[in-house]
Each structure stands twice: as structure tokens, then as C-alpha cells.
């Protein structure tokens, strides 16, 4: 009997009516496998995954496949977004066995959780040389009964191999790591269309953030050019929702025209950060416009009324990929009238014959005219028409780490764009997470949905949340936000740090044991938890002046340097964190009777202020701030105006009373 009806995960609920007798991950399923002497069939995916849908329709909704699974296996479904620890363990298995990975992830294992087979999507029956699921299930069932030792031996070997594959390298970090990464990006760069390597092309915003930061640190304009070329090409392409804002997951072609249409919260949060940084670095209004549209998409489409942010939206509508987004000229003209309709079609490449399966993905590739403003009535009409025409499935889980990325990006948007709605949304989300996603021990939950929080928080949850709180502090200068950053960073160290070999595990020391306890350092679609941990620790060292945090940061950089050396371009967020330590840094303390000086807010609107750690001390917050940053206790509060204290690379300068007299060269 299918056991998924009681779950909260949208992905698991999508499979609750399958004829397969699915179990969620847990002791009950493994005990059943032992009792019935059967292998375990594990399928991992997520609710907005196109190929997960395809495999579900072809196989898991099919009674023939279900009969085989129910007879010879105990079957388990896992939402990778709810259990990234399980996904990380078995994705490592798949990559070790096949050289690649992805979702849906298909694994067969013993009742002791030892995998002996792994792959991704399989059609129901053999197709073009690709094995079919029916054949695989029959073969494994046969071997389980007739030659089990072969499977058990493979399971032991695979389990031992992934257990030994933990990063342990340590070395002294240096700037050469950043130079190597830049050279790698330069060699892979598509000089015509932007991005790196051939199609499919992924935005990978943290790579762009690294290049923009490197350009400034090393006075290397070519690094900025690579980032700008990519950001501009993506903004013009079909990967960017020209009518509604926000970005799809990736582009299937080199020109960024035809995306895989799913939209994810983390992509849009990190891209929002990238366009904001580009705007500050160049002053080009087009980047601010794209940032506003992206923030607008998050606030309009992915925000829960309680304050959290949803995971994303599906690529498919009515079972057809991209149906929600594409148009014909006749459709546009029927909504806007002939004159306005033709103008919009010219601006956005909507033509007879189309550019995607007979219809057109709106895009501005090759356009010299600027886009219509986001609040243009024509765009608003098309948005409403699109919404009425067909709807997208929305994964309405609230994941803590993804929410933290959104909080960080929206706090930055509130600061840079002066958009109060963005800053307010970030603050509201924090209040929601504190109220609804913390347990009685004040530890974090990983997921919330439909009134229920579940699953213990993992490394990314603590690291990204702590980082987001440092960014929110820069917006609000509320000591409460700094206190929260310090709390979550301390918990991160207590629960996840490998005190013996360095680095941080994905799961907490008291978490459910799996066959391996992985550490991830490589950046995928999202920066690794270890990379974010390094940035958090370095920021807190700069903000508090406490050697405790600097020593923790130094340990983490020494651990990461050995991993970065293998392929620096795969560790761009670690390199961003490392830049904070390796390049000149400054501390700025503003002491004022009350409030935050407007000139500081104006400065932060237009300057990235990299490597600048800012504290604001007032009569109201002096005591609380001193607990976070003890060195501030000795700074006297003036009767009138403000006093500014600037320190550079360990040397403090004389205080000044006028902000404009500070030597804050960028």
C-alpha cells in the first residue's frame, strides 16, 4: 500500500496515488525489506523536475512496473530538497559508478542501505541502447535470488569507497588560487554569447560574483567583461522571463534562448545578488532594472503570506514543458490589439513559426531598444492573460537555506535599490523562520509546509542563515540581527565541524546515521555549505574583532585551500570568502547618539563595500553591541553628530566627524 498520503512534501504527494507501494525514507521501510528479504528501490527527485515527471508518467503510474516493484522490492521516495543529506550520499554513488548524476536519481540497495546500482532516468523499456527500467528490475530481482553475493560485494565496495572519499587536504591559502580560477574561466568563456563552455548553459551566479570581485581586486577589466557579457546575454534571452521577471533554471542552447523552464528560488536569489553587484560595480541602470524585475518575481510569485518563500515553479503546464511562457503573434494581438500587439511582438521576438515548437519564447536577443518597463500596462495585460490561460505547479515548501539566500538577496536589494518592499520582505521572512522553523532547543528545521516544520537543519541551513543575518544587519544595523548571526554560527561549529580533519559535515553530529557522513566543498547550483561557512566566519571575525572567529576562519581556509587547488573554478564562493581574508580589509565603526546616518546608507547604495565591516553604535544599542563586539565598549558616544573610526589592515586611524572625510577608496 502506498504510504505517501500522510507526507507534506509536494514531490512525495505527487506520487501518493501511484500503484507503487511507496514508503518515505525511514526505519519502517528498511525493516520491511529485512523481514521480506528484498532489496530496496530508492527514487530521489523534486516536484519541479521535468524528467522526474516523465519517469513518473512512464513507469511509476504504470501497473506493469508497479507489479514488479511491489513483488520484488521495497520502494522508497525521497524529496532531495527535504533530505539533501540522503541525496548527497547517493548522488556520490551515482557519480562514482556512472561518471555523472542528476534527477531523477535511481538507486538499488540492500536493507542495510548499501547501494549496488545507481543511475538517473530510465525509460520503461529499452530505448536507443538505454536500458529500460523493466529489464533492470527483472535482472536485479533475479540476481538477488540467484547470485546475491555479487550484489552484496558490490555494495560493500561502493560503501567503503564513498566513505573514504572525504576531503581532508590542508594547505596554506594564497592569491594564486584566485588567479588560477580566473584563468580557467577565461579559457572556457564564450566570447559571443557569454557563459562558460557549450550548451546546456547554467547561470551559476557565484561564478559571476567571483569574476566581478576579482576584476576589482586585481584591476582586471577582462574579468568584469566576462561577467557583464554573460549577465547582459541572460537578461536578453528566453531564460529571463521577459514579461514576468525571474530566471529559469538553465538554457538548452548557447544563446540563452530556450530554457528548461522551471524557476527556482535559489537561482533567482543568487542572480538578484549578481545583478545588484553589477549595478554597483558599473552604475549601469539596466542591471538595476533586471534586479528589480527579479525581486518583483520573488515577491509576487514565491512569497507565502506568512513571510516565507516557496521553492519554485514547474517547467510544465498541462503536461507540456514551457506552455505557460510561449506565445503566438495572434495571441498577443488578441490581448493587446493590433497596434500594441505588433509592437510587443517586434520588441520580444514573437513571430510566425516561432522559435520553440511552433510558438515563440519572448526574448530580446539582437534588440537595441530597451525593454518595456515592468509596470507597463501591456506587460500587465499579458501577465494576466498568461495566468488565466494555464497555470504552473508551484512547490510551496519553505526550505530554510533557500529562504536564507532570498533574505540575503532581498536585504541587499533593499539597500542598493532603496526598495522598502524588499527589505521589509527580508525582515518578515526572518521573523517567520524564527517563529515557525526553530524547535524547543532553538535549533533550525530544514523544511516547513502546511503548518508543519520537519527535518533537522543541516550545514547549509545554519551557514546561509548566519550569512544572511550579517547582510540584514548591514541593512538594518539592528544588533538583534548580528546576535542571530553569531548564534547560528556558533551552532554551526558545535554541530557540524570536523575537529580532527577540518571542514564541516553536511549533517549534525547527532543526526540520523547514513552509510557516509559527507563533506561537500564543490559549488554546484548553490554554493557549498563549507564555502558559506568560511565566509560567515571571516565576516564575524571582521565584525566582532574576536580571535575566536578568526581562528575558526583560518582553520576553514586551510581546509578549503587543499580542495580548491584541485579545480579552483569549481570553488568560486570559497574564493570569494578567501578574498575577504587575503586582500586588504577595513573596519568602520560609526558612533552616534541615535539612528543610522543617511550618508552611510547612501554610500552603501552605490558601493559594494567589499572587505568593509561596519558597525553602528548608539546609546540605545551600546550594551547589546558590546556583547557581540566587545572592543566597541570603549568608543565614546558624542553629544552631537557622529564620530567615524576607520581601521585598515590592523591599523586604526584618528576618528573624524564628517563621513566625507573618510578615506574609503573602493
TrEMBL record:
InterPro entries according to UniProt: 6-hairpin_glycosidase_sf, 6hp_glycosidase-like_sf, Ssp411, Ssp411-like_TRX, Thioredoxin-like_sf
CDD domains to which the protein is assigned, alphabetical: SSP411
Domain of life: Bacteria
Residues in Spermatogenesis-associated protein 20-like TRX domain copies: 2-162
UniProt xrefs under Gene3D superfamilies: 1.50.10.10, Glutaredoxin
This protein's name: Thioredoxin domain-containing protein
Lineage, opening ranks: Bacteria, Bacillati, Bacillota, Clostridia, Eubacteriales
